[in-house]
Amino acid sequence: MVLPAGDRPGADVTQALGALWDYRVYARRWVFLLVLSLLSFSNATLWLSFAPVADMIAHHFLLSTEQINWLSRVYLVASIPSGVVAIWVLDSVGLRWATIVCAWLNFAGSVFRTLPFMVGGIQDPFAFLMGGQSLCALAQSLVVFSPAKLAALWFPEHQRATANMIGTMSNPLGILVANLLSPALVKKEEDIPMMLGIYIIPAGITCLLATACLLESVPPTPPSARAIHSTSEKFLDGLKLLLCNRAYVVLAVCFGGGIGIFSSFSALLEQVLCVRGYSNVSAAPP
């Protein structure tokens, strides 16, 4: 029986019913959310770490501006095939292992980018920069798809929106920090190794936390009745249902187009403004 909106139980009543029906919530759900939020934050900072100082990066490595743009653009290109794979991975291997793999990809990519400074005699630094960015790009799809899954499996109904919001908003927060931090750190070309090293720190911490603190994909006892039925459709069946859903297709095209425009503009903002006489710091968003 569906209750009218005014008669639906509040959070206190829901918790009481949950205790009666043996639904439980676990404090470690917040640890999982913290790890996922830090991972999303770190991945976003790695994405845009080069864009705000593209001119100095290009001059230091003797690269073209187009090559520097590809260091950010690879995230957008990789998200198309890796996004489909990420859906299958989350449903097949579970949230815990998907997050751990994502954290290691993110950390490995952040370290791989620094190899031109750590290893002498490298003839083609762009290959290492692009290789590192590509590893981080593969991790992106997993991390942006995970908050909704985490909220559905670990959080009671009255906390799902909050958990999903925290995990999702960590990504644009990382974009903001990267736009502010990179030009603040790189005042001259000799500061580039320091900038790359600083971006390794949150990636390394997140990788350690994910490996040591995430012990299971689902809680021993579901947090609510809906969590029991939160399993997805079979992979191919789910894709067919989505492609046949006209409302979803319209929403995906409109929302995806907006995200694409925002992402492209974020990656090119420094180059658009600096040719008009603005400095790298001034080109960062307020």
UniProtKB/TrEMBL annotation:
Membrane topology: Multi-pass membrane protein
Signal sequence coordinates: none
Keyword annotations: Membrane, Transmembrane, Transmembrane helix
Pfam family name, one: MFS_1
Entry's Gene Ontology cellular component terms: membrane
GO MF entry, a single one: transmembrane transporter activity
SUPFAM superfamilies referenced in this protein's UniProt entry, alphabetically: MFS general substrate transporter
Domain of life, source organism: Eukaryota
Subcellular location: Membrane
Transmembrane region(s): 30-50, 70-89, 95-115, 127-145, 198-218, 247-269
Record-linked PANTHER family: MAJOR FACILITATOR SUPERFAMILY PROTEIN-RELATED, SOLUTE CARRIER FAMILY 49 MEMBER A3
Name by which UniProt lists this protein: Major facilitator superfamily
Species this protein is from: Lynx pardinus (Iberian lynx)
Upper classification of the organism: Eukaryota, Metazoa, Chordata, Craniata, Vertebrata
